[in-house]
Amino acid sequence: MNRAGRPKRGRDGDAPEGARPSPALRAKASRIAAVLDGYYPSPPVPLDHRDPFTLLVAVLLSAQTTDVRVNLVTPELFRLAATPAEMAAVPELAILGAIRSVGLAPTKARQIRKLAAQLVERHGGRVPAELAALEALPGVGHKTASVVMAQAFGVPAFPVDTHIHRCAARWGLSDGSSVVRTERDLTALFPREHWNKLHLQIIWFGREHCPARGHDPARCPICSFAAPR
After folding, report:
1. pLDDT (tens digit per residue) in 173-228
2. What mean pLDDT is reported for the chain?
3. Among 219, 197, 199, CA closest to 209
4. DSSP per-residue string spanning the chain
5. Which residues are the active-site residues?
6. Where in the chain is the domain with CATH 1.10.340.30?
7. Residues of each domain in the chain carrying CATH 1.10.1670.10
8. Each residue of 70-121: pLDDT tens digit?
9. Where residue 1 falls among pLDDT bands split at 50, 70, 90?
């Protein structure tokens, strides 16, 4: 693990070091992927956006807030400003007014304005297509940066949200001890070229078929065979 608390990458970038899934676990992962392909062959990005900047802002807003709520507030926000230069010029109170119904709105309004200003000052008004540069922006953590890399720039990444963390533990693909461990285990189990699609597939499956509450594992299309006995 590196100093930032994230999985240390292997030399080829395909999987973190130290992860060696068994053949049986790989076979189960392949079966899970086949089920997910059947349910979500072309999974959409849950957050409405137009470009890397609007996706970045939407993902930042989604922390401790549902994607449905974010999609309700971003149209008004992006009417105010849809580029880093425009957003940096909008008063913080105006940003707050547009996003007031999301969780942690005052903090997010401040972060969005600072983020926009840094994009203008340090990146020529463009969202950088580099993980480290994204993580250096105000309010942008590893998961947010990974989502942008995957969905805006097509760079393989496996961002772990609550749905993915829950499902990976239920299916015996990781031990549920931390999102860092879950990311390490999933990137070791699945081919790198499938990460971006699987990230979205598991999110949708977790919402619609494997929810946190009121879930019957015996009737679940994946838990029924994948959950540890």
Report:
1. 999 999 999 999 999 999 999 999 999 999 999 999 999 999 999 999 999 999 99
2. 92
3. 219
4. --TTSSPPBPTTSSSBTT----HHHHHHHHHHHHHHHHH-SSPPPSS--SSHHHHHHHHHHTTTS-HHHHHHHHHHHHHH--SHHHHHHS-HHHHHHHHTTSTTHHHHHHHHHHHHHHHHHHHTTS--S-HHHHHTSTT--HHHHHHHHHHTT--------HHHHHHHHHTTSS-SS-HHHHHHHHHHHS-GGGHHHHHHHHHHHHHHTS-SSS--GGGSTTHHHHS--
5. 143, 161
6. 52-151
7. 23-43+156-226
8. 999 999 999 999 999 999 999 999 999 999 999 999 999 999 999 999 999 9
9. very low
Q: How far apart are CA 15 and CA 141, in angstroms?
A: 20
Which CATH class name applies to 23-43+156-226?
A: mainly alpha
**Does 63 have pLDDT greater than 80?**
yes
* CATH number assigned to the domain covering 52-151: 1.10.340.30
User: In the numeric block, which tokens belong to residue 128?
Assistant: 């950088």
